[in-house]
């Protein structure tokens, strides 16, 4: 391990596996569960409100939310760094986030602690693809190609 580097739990590739179900709370205090979402495809982002690349991905996620019908694509972000609800509410407001923003610590995806991570989940709730990190335009294109191929 490099000195000063945080140790990360090993990640497991969940592609092709059934997405673990969860029930989380959104910023309005409403319960949201994976099994309750009716969209054909779900884009689930694991994020942290102190993460630069996560912040850069917000306009892309807002655009997806606007461009696709709710029965086609649901866009969700889960704050995984354990920030308080009030910090998350301020972040959502200040960043103009228009998609569902949830708070939780989900370990079922065995994603480790690096963010952002995006999971594309299909109609049968199987994980279609995982995208690690975010590079404007490159990641956008890769994710959108997969969304379109699965609608």
Written overview of the protein:
- Strand 6 and strand 7 form a beta hairpin.
- The N terminus is likely disordered.
- A seven-stranded mixed sheet has the order 2-1-5-4-3-6-7, with helices on one face.
- By secondary structure, it is α/β, with parallel strands linked by helices.
- The chain starts with 22 loop residues before the first strand and ends with a helix.
- It is built from four helices and seven strands.
Radius of gyration: 15 Å
Helix content: 25-40%
Average pLDDT works out at 87
Give the tally of β-strands.
Answer: 7
Main β-sheet, in a few words? 7 strands, mixed
Overall body shape: globular
Judged by helices, strands and strand pairing, the structural class is alpha/beta
List the defining traits of the structure above.
151 residues, alpha/beta, seven-stranded mixed sheet, 7 strands, 25% helix, globular, disordered N terminus
Concise overview:
This protein is α/β, with parallel strands linked by helices. It has helices at 52-56, 58-67, 85-95, 138-149; strands at 23-26, 31-33, 41-47, 73-79, 100-103, 117-121, 127-132. The protein has 4 helices and 7 strands.
Summarize the helices and strands and which ones pair or pack.
Layout: E1 23-26, E2 31-33, E3 41-47, H1 52-56, H2 58-67, E4 73-79, H3 85-95, E5 100-103, E6 117-121, E7 127-132, H4 138-149
Parallel strand pairs: 3-4, 4-5
Antiparallel strand pairs: 1-2, 1-5, 3-6, 6-7
């Amino acid at each position: 391990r490099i000195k000063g580097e945080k140790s990360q739990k090993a990640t497991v590739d969940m592609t092709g596996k059934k997405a673990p179900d969860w029930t989380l709370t959104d910023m309005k205090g409403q319960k949201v569960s994976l099994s309750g979402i009716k969209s054909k495809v779900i884009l689930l982002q694991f994020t942290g409100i102190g993460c630069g690349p996560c912040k850069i991905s917000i306009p892309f996620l807002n655009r997806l939310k606007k461009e696709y019908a709710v029965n086609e694509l649901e866009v969700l972000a889960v704050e995984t760094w354990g920030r308080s609800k009030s910090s998350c509410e301020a972040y959502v407001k200040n960043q103009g986030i228009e998609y569902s923003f949830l708070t939780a610590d989900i370990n079922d995806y065995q994603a480790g602690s690096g963010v952002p991570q995006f999971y594309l989940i299909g109609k049968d709730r199987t994980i279609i693809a995982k995208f690690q990190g975010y590079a404007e335009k490159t990641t956008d294109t890769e994710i959108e190609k997969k969304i379109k191929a699965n609608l």
